[in-house]
Amino acid sequence: AFKNCAHEGRIIAEEHKNMAKSYADLKSQHQNSDRETQHVVESKTTELLKIRKTEFQIKRELRLKQLVEKNEDILWLMSRLEHYEENIHKVEKKDV
Fold first, then answer.
1. Could you give the 3-state DSSP secondary structure of residue 1?
2. How far apart are the first and last CA of the chain?
3. Angle CA(76)–CA(82)–CA(88) in degrees, nearest 5?
4. Which domain of life is it from (predicted)?
C-alpha cells in the first residue's frame, strides 16, 4: 500500500509539474500577445498621427493659398483705386 501511495504521489507531482509548465507557457503566450497588441496599437496610433499631420498641412496650405489670393485681390483693388484717384486729380486740375 505504501508503494502505491508513493507511486501515486510521483504521478500527482508529475501532473502538477506539467500543469505548472502549461500555465507558464500560457502566461508567456499571453505576454507575447500583449506585446504584439501593444505594438499594433502603437503602430496604428503613429499612422493615425501621420494622417492627421498630413491633413493639417493640407488645410494649412489651402488656407495660405486662399490668403495669398485674397491679398492679390486686395493689391489689385488698391492699384485700381490709385488709378481712379489719379484720374480724379487730372480731371480736377482740368476743371480748375
1. coil
2. 140
3. 140
4. Eukaryota
